[in-house]
Amino acid sequence: MNHFLNKQSRVLVVDDEPGVRTALEANFLRQGWRVETAGGAQEASLAMNRMRFDLVVSDVRMNDGDGFEVLHSARKIAPSTPVILLTAFGSVPEAVQSMRGGAFDYLTKPVSFEQLQTVAHKVMQRAGQSNTDAAAESGAIKTRIVGRSMQLLKALERGRAAAGTDADVLIEAESGTGKELFARYIHDASSRSRKPFVAVNCAALPESLLESELFGHAKGAFTGAAAAKTGRFELANGGTLLLDEIGEMPLNLQPKLLRVLQEREFERLGETRHIRLDIRVIATTNAPLATMVDDGRFRSDLFYRLNVIPLSIPPLRERRDDISALAEYFAAKFAAEMSLGTPVLTPGFIEQLQANRWPGNVRELANFMRRVLSLHQGGVIDAEHFHEEFQVSPAAGSKSAPTAAPGMTISMLERMHLENTLALTKGNRTHAAEILGISLRTMRNKIREYGLPPRRYA
Question: Among candidates 83, 110, 85, which has minimal Cα distance to 95?
């Protein structure tokens, strides 16, 4: 058996002749592969959308499309999947077309099983060598991101591609989708994985302290600076710096950040000595920076400098296929923390989870699972437990909540929605900010702007 295979190695065989499919399937099974088959290009595309393959072997001439359509689908759905094309009508133009299209190899029928297995062996050898090299350079990827939906896998593929470069990355996604987790994934998959990963939340720090936190300061640089301080840029040198909620960075600090990103050097506050940086910057935002640029709330030159590799993470409502896996993961995780046996989540409970929109995304689902396990420590969690613990947002149509009326201004609607969400979270500003997709700083500003009693909201 090919020693580069493991029990998960999977091949997709595509041919419109049943006899050929059966013969190829039997050959791959004997070699230790897990095999899926498809009778044409459309069926192959559906299979690739449903699961991941380590190799695709496709006939070129078929009644339902052709091998080049299969190749195009593979490049679109899973760009790293190697494709071998087979044809009884070998020609130089087709060979050139297949290689330009990204095929791993091009074989002319009749193809012996030995010849096909030789090429398949090269595919797995190359994949195995690539994994070995990556492990030697950067160690195993420690960050675990749960889910197998097509939307999530595409985002992970883009993150893995970004990890292979030193380019800065901008992650735009709603609150609670796992932006920091993706940033750590990119760091862990990169050659910098053995170096520091340092995160700073631009929205959580007061404006007066943010510059010192980022760049550090010398002793006596300002009133209260009783000792020198090393900034986050310096702490992350050689590794990765995460600038979380970059959209909350004050405008007056953005030019200095831009210069540091361009020059890869900076000075601590109160010093003139230049400190050189070898660093990758990953910035995250829950608000579209391009819109903030148009509104004059973010510098366009800084946006373009950060947006070298843009990455978006789909919200949970767009990848419902992941909800079941996430629920099982959180159930096991929280049960272990509480010293409980792992509960059984019934199909009815999972159906209720998948029917919900989860405006707070994965973070909201995690909080909900923790609450369910905390209050229902039995062995089975069913639909009844979902209805007992899930609170429908007043803003989503509860009869007890105020509703919009004709003639209300935008500010009146915003205030009403803000109050409804704060009521839903029992005054928890952090949770309300997550649901609304805004930063905690913006939440505080809105409470102040609308004259809501700040002591009521924790």
Answer: 85
- Whether the bond into 110 is cis, omega within 30 of 0: yes
- Strands (E) across 251-348 are located at 265-266, 275-276, 280-285, 309-312, 344-345
Measured distance CA(67)–CA(101) in Å, rounded: 11
**Dist. CA 67–CA 42, nearest whole Å:** 11
Residue 382 has pLDDT above 90, yes or no: no
The domains located in the chain, with CATH, are: 10-135 (3.40.50.2300), 150-312 (3.40.50.300), 316-390 (1.10.8.60), 396-456 (1.10.10.60)
pLDDT, tens only, 408-435: 667 677 778 888 888 877 788 887 887 8
Place of tokens 């995250």: 284
For residue 260, give both structure tokens.
């540091």
Contact in structure between 36 and 12 (CB atoms under 8 Å) = yes
Residue 451, C-beta contacts closer than 8 angstroms, at least 6 positions apart:
none
Answer yes or no: are the C-beta atoms of 365 and 326 closer than 8 Å.
yes
Comparing CA positions, the residue from 90, 85, 46 lying closest to residue 66 is: 85
Beta carbons of 365 and 353 less than 8 angstroms apart: yes
Q: What is the DSSP letter of 242?
A: E
**So what's the pLDDT on residue 134?**
38
Residue 175 burial (C-beta neighbours within 10 Å; 0-12, 13-18, 19+)? buried
Q: 137 pLDDT exceeds 60?
A: no
Reduced 3-state DSSP string for 116-136: HHHHHHHHHHHHHHHHHHHHH
Rg over CA atoms, the chain: 27
Q: Give the closest residue to 75 by CA, choosing from 50, 100, 93, 96.
A: 100
Helix (H, G, I), strand (E, B) or coil at 378: coil
Phi-psi region of 357 (alpha: psi -120 to 50; beta: other; left: phi over 0): alpha
